[in-house]
């Protein structure tokens, strides 16, 4: 099961409204390499990991990604909670306002809805772990793009934190994959 | 809900950031690791920022929560490491030192400011204390 703790993994306190930045952050909310996709990908793959190390790592990283979903949602909410219809339209979110008003809705930055097709799961632990390593790299790059799109310290600080987590997750997935290559004597 | 006598006094926590119980020189202390997003200095890989932002709590409640955040972060990051390296006794000891500290601070937070978890003792209060404080995404 999961237990809710009434705090963020890392604090988010944004006071400067920026509806455009809220839109860009949707990439990490409902996008193909976003935090929702990561959480569901790892939590679905864990059942077919071959040993206890893999089941533990996929469970724990998947759980941390759920906390990252909450951080991204908090950022989007704080950046755009007060946005006017005009500000939504100027940020390219006019259609989002039409369909969802100020509600959060899991899409990518261009409004493409989240789909389970983002959740890769092959049943082969090497294929899955190498896919996970690549997903962490893509998410890291996207955080760099997002950091290039803002100069607000209140936005940069959590983005920098989240980017660094992608690096650690990549390293742990790679360590597990290398361990499995030796343990199960597989070359590919 | 004020029945806890075993909290360390507040001076203990003033020295929190200076205190590094970790004997493992390859790790940041919890607060430094927390603001870096990474407990392992050798793997820290910055982008755009010359150094990570400090977290400055605006009141005592936020200060205590930041200490909890830092210790919980250390537990998350060391936990991922231990998932893949379960035989590292030194890291396991460090994990448990942070776990004990985190649990003490979480009990202090619960008694002073209310519940972070549905298992917290402050939920014996009437009326229902879970609704009492802002949700973590709210800042207005």
Give a description of the structure.
The complex is a heterodimer of chains A (188) and B (140). Chain A has 188 residues and is mainly alpha-helical. Chain A has one domain (19-116, 123-183): Ferritin, CATH 1.20.1260. Helix content of chain A is 63%, strand content 0%. Chain A has eight helices and no strands. Chain A has helices spanning 19-25, 27-30, 35-45, 52-80, 85-90, 94-100, 125-148, 153-183. In chain A, helix 3 (35-45) packs antiparallel against helix 7 (125-148), helix 4 (52-80) runs antiparallel to helix 8 (153-183) and helix 7 runs antiparallel to helix 8. With 140 residues, chain B is mainly α. Chain B has one domain. Chains A and B meet through helix 4, helix 7 and helix 8 of A and helix 2 and helix 3 of B.
Q: Could you tell me the number of beta strands of chain B? A: 0
**Globular, elongated, flat, extended or rod-shaped: what is the shape of chain B?**
globular
CATH superfamily of chain A: Ferritin, core subunit, four-helix bundle
- Percent helix of chain B, as a range, is 40-55%
N-to-C span of chain B: 28 Å
Biggest protein-protein contact in the assembly: A-B, 47 and 44 residues
Radius of gyration of chain A: 18 Å
Number of helices of chain A: 8
Overall pLDDT of chain B:
86
**Beta-strand level of the residues of chain A, as a percent range?**
under 5%
Strand % of chain B is under 5%
Encode the helix/strand succession of chain A as letters. Answer: HHHHHHHH
Tell me the Rg of chain B in angstroms: 17 Å
Q: How many individual domains of chain A? A: 1
- Unreliable stretches covering 5 or more consecutive residues of chain A: none
Order of helices and strands of chain B: HHHH
In terms of quaternary structure, what is this?
Answer: heterodimer
Number of helices of chain B: 4
- Major beta sheet summary of chain B: none
Describe how the helices and strands are arranged:
The complex is a heterodimer of chains A (188) and B (140).
Chain A: H1 19-25, H2 27-30, H3 35-45, H4 52-80, H5 85-90, H6 94-100, H7 125-148, H8 153-183
Helix pairs in contact in A: 1-4, 3-4, 3-7, 4-8, 7-8
Chain B: H1 10-14, H2 30-36, H3 60-84, H4 89-113
Helix pairs in contact in B: 2-3, 3-4
């Amino acid at each position: 099961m999961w237990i809710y703790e009434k705090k963020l993994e890392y604090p988010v306190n944004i006071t400067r409204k920026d509806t455009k930045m809220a839109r860009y952050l949707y990439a990490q909310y409902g996008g193909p390499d976003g935090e929702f996709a990561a959480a569901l990908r790892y939590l679905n793959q864990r059942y077919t990991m071959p040993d206890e190390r893999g089941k533990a790592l996929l469970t724990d990283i998947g759980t941390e990604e759920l906390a990252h979903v909450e951080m991204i949602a908090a950022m989007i909410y704080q950046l755009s909670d007060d946005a006017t219809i005009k500000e939504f339209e100027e940020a390219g979110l006019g259609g989002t306002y039409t369909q969802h008003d100020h509600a959060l809705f899991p899409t990518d930055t261009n409004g493409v809805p989240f789909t389970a097709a983002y959740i890769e799961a092959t049943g082969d632990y090497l294929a899955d772990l190498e896919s996970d390593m690549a997903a962490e790299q893509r998410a890291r790059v996207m955080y760099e793009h997002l950091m290039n799109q803002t100069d607000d310290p209140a936005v940069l600080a959590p983005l920098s934190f989240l980017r660094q987590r992608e690096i650690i997750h990549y390293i742990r997935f790679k360590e597990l994959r290398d361990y499995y290559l030796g343990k199960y004597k597989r070359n590919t | 809900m004020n029945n806890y006598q075993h909290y360390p006094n507040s001076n203990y926590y003033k020295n929190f950031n200076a205190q590094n119980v970790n004997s493992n020189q390859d790790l940041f202390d919890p607060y430094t690791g927390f603001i870096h997003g990474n407990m392992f200095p050798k793997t820290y890989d910055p982008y755009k920022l010359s150094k990570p932002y400090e977290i400055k709590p605006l009141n005592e409640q936020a200060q205590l929560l930041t200490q909890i955040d830092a210790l919980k972060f250390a537990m998350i990051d060391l936990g991922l490491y231990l998932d893949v390296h379960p035989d590292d006794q030194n890291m396991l000891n460090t994990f448990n030192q942070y776990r004990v500290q985190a649990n003490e601070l979480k009990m202090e937070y619960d008694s002073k400011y209310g519940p972070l978890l549905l298992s917290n003792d402050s939920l014996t209060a009437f009326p229902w204390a879970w609704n009492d404080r802002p949700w973590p995404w709210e800042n207005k």
